[in-house]
User: Which sequence fits this backbone?
């Protein structure tokens, strides 16, 4: 065996772990309350509830920054598509409210 440089993405790892242990729900905590389109611009639109298929459309349009929101969105999408369960992306400060359905971005297949 020979070692090679590698990076393990924490979001994809979390989603895989959640899927492997048959978690009921995936929560990805980040610096913002909700996933947004046109982030940081006057046209910013926060997403409250979205499907993996809608997110894929937004990814294709280039809405999420690689190395920032993109891996979180992709990991949450993969978890929902693989398990038919729900995922939430929100900030640590808003996690309790997010779990209560009051904020955050909920990714669900329906």
Assistant:
């Amino acid at each position: 065996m020979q070692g090679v440089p590698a990076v393990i993405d924490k979001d994809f790892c979390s989603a895989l772990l959640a899927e492997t242990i048959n978690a009921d729900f995936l929560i990805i905590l980040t610096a913002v309350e909700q996933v947004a389109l046109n982030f940081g611009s006057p046209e910013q639109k926060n997403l409250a509830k979205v499907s993996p298929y809608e997110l894929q459309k937004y990814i294709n349009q280039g809405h999420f920054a690689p190395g920032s929101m993109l891996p979180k969105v992709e990991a949450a999408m993969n978890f929902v598509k693989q398990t038919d369960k729900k995922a939430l992306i929100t900030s640590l400060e808003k996690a309790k409210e997010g779990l209560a359905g009051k904020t955050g971005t909920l990714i669900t297949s329906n």
In short: The CA atoms of residues 9 and 71 lie 8 Å apart.
